[in-house]
Amino acid sequence: MDNNNDTGLGKVVRRRELFAFAAAAATLMVPKWAQAAAQVRKPRPERVLSLYNLHTGESVKATYWADGKYLGSEMRSIWRVMRDHRTDETHPIDPDVFDLLFALQRKLRTSQPFQIVSGYRSPVTNAMLAEQSDGVANHSLHMVGKAVDVRIQGQAVRTIGRAALQLKQGGVGMYPRSNFVHVDVGPVRRW
Ligand SMILES: [Zn+2]
């Protein structure tokens, strides 16, 4: 404030201007969408996944994320369905894989469950599969819970693959003859 102003009037005006400026600045700092969001109470966001394992016939529908948090027990129920069915070993699956599937499901606008062709693979299983097929990497991301092979009823491999590529969240491999798409949360690449 200017102490040399002895009329007092200048101070008042200046203060008013300051208030107006502060109010304008506050409005500018909060984006329009956030102001709107604050006014309309939205239902709390959740992320839900439905999976069906083609080998075991087991299925799961889990709300693995809610109120800004990953939910441990729900995630474990997905790990179980994504386990190595050959050795019966369960391994943690990277939550990024769940988010990738969730994004994919939204992009495809489907409520059909993901059919799991291959989730976690133990080193023993992976070595066995690598011996049988050239398409199986020796150090597969399936072995660290960062990859999954899926299909969706009524969706072409190319459709799922293209949607996955657009997400740019990792690797995408399309296997039309075997009718599945490999997605992982490693570096972005395609084959
Ligand atoms: Zn795969």
Mean pLDDT: 86
Number of strands: 8
In total, the number of domains comes to: 2
Largest sheet: 8 strands, mixed
SSE order, one letter for each helix or strand: HHEEEHHEHEHEEE
Low-confidence stretches: 1-13
Classify the fold: give the CATH topology of the largest domain. Muramoyl-pentapeptide Carboxypeptidase, domain 2
Main sheet: strand order = 3-2-1-4-5-7-6-8
CATH architecture of the largest domain: 2-Layer Sandwich
Write down the overall geometry. Answer: globular
Bound molecules: zinc ion
Termini gap: 67 Å
Class inferred from helices and paired strands: alpha+beta
Radius of gyration: 26 Å
Tell me roughly what share of residues is in helical segments.
25-40%
Strand content: 15-25%
**What is the top-level CATH class of the largest domain?**
Alpha Beta
Descriptive overview:
The chain is α+β, with helices and mostly antiparallel strands. It has two domains: 9-39; 46-190, 2-Layer Sandwich (Muramoyl-pentapeptide Carboxypeptidase, domain 2). 38% of the residues lie in helices and 21% in strands. It has six helices and eight strands, in the order ααβββααβαβαβββ. The protein has helices spanning 9-29, 32-39, 72-81, 95-107, 123-132, 157-167; strands spanning 46-53, 59-66, 69-70, 114-118, 147-151, 171-175, 180-184, 189-190. The chain has an eight-stranded mixed beta sheet with strand order 3-2-1-4-5-7-6-8. α4 crosses α6. The N and C termini lie far apart (67 Å). Mean pLDDT is 86; it is low at 1-13. The structure holds zinc ion. The site of zinc ion has 5 residues, from β5.
